[in-house]
Amino acid sequence: MSSTTASAAGGGTAPVNSRSRVIFASLIGTSIEFYDFYVYATAAVLVFPALFFPNADGVVAQLQSFAVFGVAFIARPLGSIVFGHFGDKIGRKGTLVASLLTMGIATFVIGILPTALTPGWEVLAPALLVAMRFGQGLGLGGEWSGAALLATENAPRNKRAIYGTFPQLGAPIGFIIANGVFLLLSINLDAEAFQAWGWRVPFLASAILVIVGLYVRFKLIETPAFQKVVDSGEVAKLPLARAFKVSWRQMILGAFIMLATYVLFYLMTTFTLTYGTTANSLETAVSNAEAAGKPMTEAAQAAFVPGLGYARNDFLVMLILGVVFFGIFTLVAGPLAERFGRRKMLMAVTAGILVFGGLFVPLFSAGQVGVMALLIIGFTLMGLTFGPMGAVLPELFPTNVRYTGSAIAYNVSSILGAAVAPFIAVALWQAAGGSAGLVGVYLSSMAVLTLIALFISRETKDVEYEGNVS
């Protein structure tokens, strides 16, 4: 239920969102959005190469699937512009409803698409997959910033980083649900049934989650910070133009502050799943392909590069266990950022990510215990770096361009980091002949760029937040 607070004008009361509603609405929305997003990421590794790119050899089909995966990240900055405009123009509530609906429709349609194996759909099916993936990116481009603002603009001043961790928690929750559904399906269905129809279930099931999310968000009222901008007549006429005029430097800094976070996450999920479940020898790969009724061509055998050879289900369980640490340390990160400051904490964690890049080879080479240790350490660092971002990026911008500015920074970083991370990582793995050493170097290099951005940025813990305008 909504609660009330004393109005700034006179002694009346004005409705506000209750703490529980703020937390739940920001958490459930991002959980749904990230669920939808990760459902595709998992399918891009497990089934889409064979279903939508059947005429390409193994590695080429995988890279084509990752290329479509990257389309969403190209769409995300556009989504940040579109939804950012309305978020700063008409308010956070309505924009959050629209972003969730956009993502939900695109995800559901993927679940009913014919594949390229369907006669007559050889070209159209991949094209429609690209279009729906673009729609997913468009929706997520407007979702994160709005959810972060919903949490932090309703938070007490000394608890913004704590409140800001709840939309961030949607990432590990969405990942666990998405991969948990895939895991249950793959356990209960044989390979033929899973590839024929089982993969569709997670996409179709998203409709139920979206309905719940929409119900919760329709119950919200506008945030106090944006309402103050409306009451003072300071709503930006063109939020995008205004953001570039007064906050262009903050958008650049914000994008690079997020860079190591993005690269780390998509290496720890999409790349490790690919690397971990690829056969560890050519002989095994040939045998597996023959058992599946799809013998490897000579070209595919010549291009084959070994991975770790784990069974798909086994590695999914390992990933889910690792993501539990992601969720725990996302929540831990909020109080730490309040106590030590956002900038100081993130510099320490990013230095840890830099060092972590050097552990890829020794841990990947240390058997199952080493791989599990790599996943736990990586996801722990992920939680510590991702948790404070829900407060850090919005705090860089004044209220009347905060939705637009933080969304653009967040989603431009998605292109620089997440869109290309799986593709670059696979290419580096191939170039190194099956070693993940160059992948670790890549991660460490991105951490250096983030450290530079943090070094030249300012602490935002004590900035004015409610109703400040440019």
TrEMBL record:
Keyword Transmembrane: yes
SUPFAM superfamilies associated with the record: MFS general substrate transporter
Compartments where found: Cell membrane
InterPro entries given in the database record: MFS_dom, MFS_sugar_transport-like, MFS_trans_sf, Sugar_transporter_CS
GO MF annotations, alphabetized: transmembrane transporter activity
Gene3D superfamilies in UniProt: MFS general substrate transporter like domains (1.20.1250.20)
GO cellular component, one term: plasma membrane
Assigned keywords, A-Z: Cell membrane, Membrane, Transmembrane, Transmembrane helix, Transport
Transmembrane segments: 37-54, 66-84, 96-117, 123-150, 162-185, 197-218, 252-273, 315-333, 345-365, 371-396, 408-429, 435-456
Domain of life: Bacteria
Membrane-protein topology: Multi-pass membrane protein
Main location: membrane
Descriptive protein name: MFS transporter
